[in-house]
Amino acid sequence: MNAGEEHLLSGIRVLDFTRALAGPTCTRMFAELGAEVIKIEAAPLGDLTRKISKLRADRSFYHIQHNLNKKSVCINLRDPRGMALVGELIPKCDVVVENFRPGVMADMGLDYDSLKQMKSDIILCSISALGQEGPLAKKPGYDYIAQAYSGVTSMIGHPDESPCIPLVGIGDVSTGVHGAFGIAAALLHRARTGRGQHLDISLLDCYYHNHEVNVHQHSGSGGKIMPTRGGRHVSYLCPAGVYRANGGDIMLMAFMHHWPDLCAAMDKNELLEKEGWLTDAERVARQDEVIEFIEKWLKTFPDVASAIKKLEEYDVPCAPVLTVAETIDHPHLVERGTVRSVVDPIAGEFKIPGMPIKTSEYEANQDYTAPCLGEHNADILSSLLSKTPEEIVEMVEAGILQSGAT
Amino acid sequence: MNAGEEHLLSGIRVLDFTRALAGPTCTRMFAELGAEVIKIEAAPLGDLTRKISKLRADRSFYHIQHNLNKKSVCINLRDPRGMALVGELIPKCDVVVENFRPGVMADMGLDYDSLKQMKSDIILCSISALGQEGPLAKKPGYDYIAQAYSGVTSMIGHPDESPCIPLVGIGDVSTGVHGAFGIAAALLHRARTGRGQHLDISLLDCYYHNHEVNVHQHSGSGGKIMPTRGGRHVSYLCPAGVYRANGGDIMLMAFMHHWPDLCAAMDKNELLEKEGWLTDAERVARQDEVIEFIEKWLKTFPDVASAIKKLEEYDVPCAPVLTVAETIDHPHLVERGTVRSVVDPIAGEFKIPGMPIKTSEYEANQDYTAPCLGEHNADILSSLLSKTPEEIVEMVEAGILQSGAT
Question: Do B208 and A233 touch (CB under 8 A)?
Fold first, then answer.
């Protein structure tokens, strides 16, 4: 149990072998909802993200953000005595999560069949770039590798140029959330049937999941529709996309039934009868003209805010395209806890994204921080495995357990 | 119970008021994992996505993809007798999901407090663009509106131009999955405590969740780091991004410990000692040179496939940037079920993304299809509410229940 704290997932214990981003996102969501997450870090260095984004006091802000409320146990996994500790921990846990390259868990003797021998109803969630099986499974993988294979990269950028990549962890984060949902569903199933489960969650499958129209449009049209990127604008609705205003950009979604509202906002109701501009299909066909017209109108405002104000008066769906810096103090994001502060005991205070699962009964953004390397070695080994202080000291001296100052 | 079918979430019943994409993604994931999802569609037309992406036989491929394995009950919600039916259905359900504009559920008498009166432990999941509360909550919202407010749009495109938008439903799909995880967590909590929950899941919060480094880098550097888009390349590692080859593009992730492998693949081990090219930071500083060098080498191959083959020989993380059309028959995606066929009884066979939650015990891609409008009116009203055939006919004749041929 999670030391007196109570939240949606209190009482669930997760053994966490994940590193970097997709796996840690999955287990962090469990930890933030109250589960006890024991992060097993490989000695001597632990999760390599401890070495990046060090902005203050030798603490990694990246590591803190993605490991809130976890416990760290740092073990030499190349020592059989270290692996024996892992073997003792598994029967105490409900869930194991890992994101090694496929095959590594088996090499460690921790494949699903072996885990089942240690705990018959264990739930194992394996997270990878391209999946546990299939001809590409063993390729080295990163977020963007899966993104490229999924066809998502091909849908980003200008149509007459090579594509762009979003500088945001879209695939890793989404995959972590898919994994968290799969585990929660497997826990509900276990409660009903007494059986465990092995989940195979990949960035590729999760990226592919995003194609809300592209796959069926190509396939369903017998190959006539060839989905591709469209720059700043949606390819089948208009106006719908990024419009330039004075001092910045505006996202404008004034298609279908919103078009009359935009025309009213522009005080150009005559456009509702303008030949060739009547439907979205017609406006898409002469998109350049429509865009030029609207951008010319937007340029009559001194800045983005005044243009947005006018559009809002007419209930036209619109938004300023905010920079990350502008999001951090935005009143709406602050009030919702979309952005939150963490106060790290070593690195101090800074901002990170809030927990997106908001519930009526519990505060979403708790005062969590992230563990130093091996911070919970003694805690976990004594409380779960009944090791004595002498045994723990012995394991530290033998290099089986390690810890670090950050 | 879901007519004899067995999967992870069998036995759970969801009342589904969602339309379009984020909400339907959430409830579809429940339906695909075996829950009974009863989609309440407002007469006369139902979910408006039934009108779009009609590629064959007047059936919407969009609607089919996002409503697999759901049951459709089409009710006139402006008739008090229709709302009375809804009131009778709620106590029979575990979960209610909706994605109306905030305030609409309250106007219908279906806010969380009212639902609790009907069923004390109900779990309500409210999905919206900008959240249930906060100064922007009531703005009309779409995926891209939330994306613009989240700062994600600002991270996509070339740094010296206005940003691009991805033509993929990244925000809606991810938000649906966040909602599904929140509901599953709330069901686990209900099993332990007997209490229900109201979840507030927004596209804005879920989009913001994707900032794996941007928010803490800006905030933690005291505003010195100003995250922005970087075109085709990662801004803090090199090589990492989209490289042009003959006949297409290649995603190449040859940073840090992968750089020596790329140098070996290029047969240019002398680069390992080239001044100014030694670290990622140095290579980022002269990115243009590095990119030009690598692209020149890639152009020595006749096509993308032969360049990929060479890179794979040296275990360099790489991928062809596939078009959506190229993904559909790709052996890896086919073997994994990343892409799958649905066979609709009216529209026939076509391809859509596979179910990304893959488990050891159940087939991920079941032979599901989507309901015609009101297809399950009689089924649900007789089995759950014990209405007689006469009562049902009467409601059809009074226009309280509707149905359609597609």
Answer: no
